[in-house]
């Protein structure tokens, strides 16, 4: 199989514009003759469904939640990037393009990233028009803040709930189309297989999660916008229902799965507190604008903190190690996520972690300096040039509350600690997955007619995603890319007519789904689905997590293979197929996670280098930074499914060519 990324010719700044000008179109009078299925209603799915319906196509949208508003995009907090240069600090489309390529450790596709930077400004205009309440400065202009891996302020935000507000904007556009009858919405439905007819994606098999009914749905094209696969680790910042099933099903039908080993560990999460925990909670990266990250310099001080004998305020300034500021002075606490996460792991591995859990994993995120700085500024602005210490502290806390109030409240409710008075405790956790279904420049997979958008594809972030770029990519794909590229594909379908669900391909796919369901329900095992999911998560975190090595990856492959055999023999799924059955839903998803976990370990094993979120211990420089091998590994690893034995998967390579950016060692110091 030869991978054709379909990247257009021409200068990087003109590729997308020239390409759009020559794409085929579907006339408005022909669009109602064409059906499109969109799986997932997060930012990518909702924006795609709303945009395509607005154009006149018939859209069927599917989500497993009870409402599109429940999509995991709602959990994104910190902001969305756009190259508008409102702060007049030197930002530009090129700089956003460059920062994204560099942040991804030179493992992203150049043309896709530049297109993302180009359309970023349009996203903000679109969302403002929808009424998204972005934060504004005193004069009414949209406000910006910084995120990791950049030296400009380009992140637009709505307090600490940006994802929620953006999703409500996209949902309002989607709801309008539902009301007009252009979108048929299927809540509480889960896609369980892709249907191909004559090699093209022509529909899906879905299960009604309330009644258990297996349904056939046809279309001329299918868009997968079902998010990422972080829950392969069991504990992650993802919603507990987030899964890889839609992406994995299209992979099993012939779509290549790209860069599965690229997983982002977010440095700013509440630490694990016990073995019965079901998920982890993200504290927004935006907090790193105002908080300083540190641990005690002395191991004995850290031990005293963990034992409750010392408070953070008891440790003198000279006895604190602000390790990100020390190691990366140019970026400080806003170093990229992969670098910041590994730095936290390093100091905790030295015994200087401050959280009293089993692993002693935790560092401080301290806002005391910001309270003093902003308190003085606020007092000065009020005409009080000699404020008391108490006035400074009060005003500083008020400033923090206005900027991050909901995040501070959330932290206090979870931990029962007041972050205005004592530093937050944070530690890295699995967050975003850069890998996903391989797509070309059109966002089309290797299956004609099967398009993949947002986090479900691999396209824009390389080996590490910069903060505030997930929302940007999801909305860029849905609002500004797919409407062009999918129309180009569908131009040949205006005479096709309705796709019948009575075709034998639909019957075959439905039978595959029913056989799998019956296999689980008739299994006489003795262990729960969560039992296996937790064990998979431990293998993945310990051996395919923040740090990897050859021996551990080989062990992971063996252990996951054994776990898979035990899973199918010993899993117990209560209930029946024709009812609401959450355990059956979990079993189907965990089966896919197990297979994906194997592929992730295989992908990490073959990539003999360190880059971004993929850190191989054997490949690091003298200072412990990633050591890339651009000569041998400057490629996208795209895996082809070769049957139930995942170890037989075949690797294909898409060479990454950099024409407009000079590859260099990534340096944030």
Describe the structure.
There is one protein chain. This protein has 669 residues and is an alpha+beta fold. Helix content is 38%, strand content 14%. The chain is built from 17 helices and 19 strands. A five-stranded parallel β-sheet has the order 5-2-1-9-17, with helices on both faces. The protein has a five-stranded antiparallel β-sheet with strand order 11-15-14-12-13. A hairpin with a 5-residue loop joins β7 and β8 (214-218). The protein is globular and about 80 Å long. The mean pLDDT is 97.
Outline the fold blueprint.
Layout (H helix, E strand, L loop, with lengths): L14 H7 L13 E5 L3 H13 L2 E5 L17 E2 L11 H11 L6 H21 L24 E2 L5 H18 L3 E4 L2 E9 L2 E9 L5 E5 L2 E4 L20 H8 L4 E2 L4 E7 L22 E5 L2 H8 L13 E2 L1 H5 L9 H16 L10 E4 L1 H14 L7 H27 L8 E10 L2 E2 L12 E3 L17 H21 L13 H18 L7 H15 L6 H21 L11 H25 L23 H4 L1 E6 L9 E6 L14
Parallel strand pairs: 1-2, 1-9, 2-5, 9-17
Antiparallel strand pairs: 3-4, 6-7, 7-8, 10-16, 10-18, 11-15, 12-13, 12-14, 14-15, 18-19
Helix pairs in contact: 2-5, 2-12, 3-4, 4-12, 10-11, 14-15, 14-16, 15-16
InterPro entries: FAD-dep_OxRdtase_2_FAD-bd, FAD/NAD-bd_sf, Fum_R/Succ_DH_flav-like_C_sf, Fum_Rdtase/Succ_DH_flav-like_C, SdhA/FrdA/AprA, Succ_DH/Fum_Rdt_flav_su, Succ_DH/fumarate_Rdtase_cat_sf
Keywords: Flavoprotein, Oxidoreductase
Pfam family, one: Succ_DH_flav_C
């Amino acid at each position: 199989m030869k991978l054709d990324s379909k990247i257009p010719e021409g200068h990087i700044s003109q590729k997308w514009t020239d390409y759009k000008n020559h794409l085929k179109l579907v006339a408005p009078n022909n669009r109602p003759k064409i059906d499109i299925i969109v799986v997932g209603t997060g930012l990518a799915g909702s924006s795609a469904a709303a945009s395509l319906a607005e154009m006149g196509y018939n859209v069927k949208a599917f989500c497993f939640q009870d409402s599109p508003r429940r999509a995991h995009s709602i959990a994104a907090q910190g902001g969305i990037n756009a190259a508008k240069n409102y702060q007049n600090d030197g930002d530009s489309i090129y700089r956003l393009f460059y920062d994204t390529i560099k942040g991804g450790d030179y493992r992203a596709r150049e043309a896709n990233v530049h297109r993302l930077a180009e359309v970023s400004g349009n996203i903000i205009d679109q969302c403002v028009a929808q009424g998204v309440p972005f934060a504004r400065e005193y004069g009414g202009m949209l406000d910006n803040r910084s995120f990791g891996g950049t030296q400009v302020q380009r992140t637009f935000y709505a307090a600490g709930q940006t994802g929620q507000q953006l999703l409500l904007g996209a949902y309002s556009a989607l709801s309008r189309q539902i009301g007009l009858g252009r979108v048929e919405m299927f809540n509480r439905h889960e896609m369980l297989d892709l249907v191909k007819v004559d090699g093209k994606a022509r529909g899906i098999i879905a299960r009604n999660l309330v009644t258990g009914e297996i349904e056939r749905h046809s279309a001329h094209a299918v868009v997968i916008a079902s998010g990422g696969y972080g829950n392969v680790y069991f504990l992650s910042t993802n919603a507990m229902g987030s899964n890889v099933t839609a992406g994995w099903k299209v992979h099993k039908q012939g779509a290549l799965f790209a860069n599965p080993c690229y997983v982002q560990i977010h440095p700013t999460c509440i630490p694990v507190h016990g073995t019965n925990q079901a998920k982890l909670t993200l504290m927004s990266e935006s907090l790193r604008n105002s908080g300083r990250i540190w641990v005690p310099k002395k191991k004995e001080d850290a031990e005293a903190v963990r034992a409750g004998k010392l408070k953070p305020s008891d440790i003198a300034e000279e006895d604190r190690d602000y390790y990100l500021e020390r190691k990366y002075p140019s970026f400080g606490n806003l170093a990229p996520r992969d670098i910041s996460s590994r730095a936290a792991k390093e100091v905790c591995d030295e015994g200087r972690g401050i959280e009293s859990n089993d692993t002693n994993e935790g560092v401080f995120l301290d806002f005391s300096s910001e309270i003093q700085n902003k308190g003085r500024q606020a007092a000065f602005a009020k005409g009080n040039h000699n404020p008391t210490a108490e006035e400074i502290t009060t005003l500083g806390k008020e400033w923090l509350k206005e900027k991050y109030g909901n995040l501070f409240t959330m932290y206090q409710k979870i931990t029962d600690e007041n972050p205005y008075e004592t530093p937050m405790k944070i530690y890295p956790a699995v967050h975003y997955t850069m890998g996903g279904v391989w797509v070309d420049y059109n966002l089309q997979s290797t299956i004609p007619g099967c398009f993949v958008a947002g986090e479900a594809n691999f396209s824009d972030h390389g080996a590490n995603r910069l903060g505030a770029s997930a929302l940007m990519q999801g909305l860029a794909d849905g609002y500004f890319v797919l409407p062009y590229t999918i129309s180009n594909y569908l131009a040949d379908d205006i005479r096709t007519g309705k796709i019948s669900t009575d075709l034998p391909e639909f019957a075959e796919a439905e039978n595959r789904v029913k056989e799998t369901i019956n296999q689980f329900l008739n299994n006489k095992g003795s262990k729960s689905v969560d039992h296996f999911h937790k064990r998979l998560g431990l293998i993945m975190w310990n051996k395919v997590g923040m740090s990897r090595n050859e021996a551990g990856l080989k062990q992971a492959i063996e252990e996951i293979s054994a776990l898979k055999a035990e899973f199918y023999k010993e899993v117990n799924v209560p209930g029946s197929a024709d009812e609401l059955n959450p355990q059956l839903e979990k079993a189907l998803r965990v089966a896919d996670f197990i297979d994906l976990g194997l592929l992730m370990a295989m992908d990490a094993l073959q990539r003999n280098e360190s880059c971004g979120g993929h850190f191989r211990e054997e490949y690091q420089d003298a200072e412990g930074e990633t050591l890339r091998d651009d000569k041998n590994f400057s490629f996208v690893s795209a895996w082809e499914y070769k049957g139930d034995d995942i170890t037989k998967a075949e690797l294909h390579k898409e060479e990454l060519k950099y024409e407009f950016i000079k590859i260099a060692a990534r340096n944030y110091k």
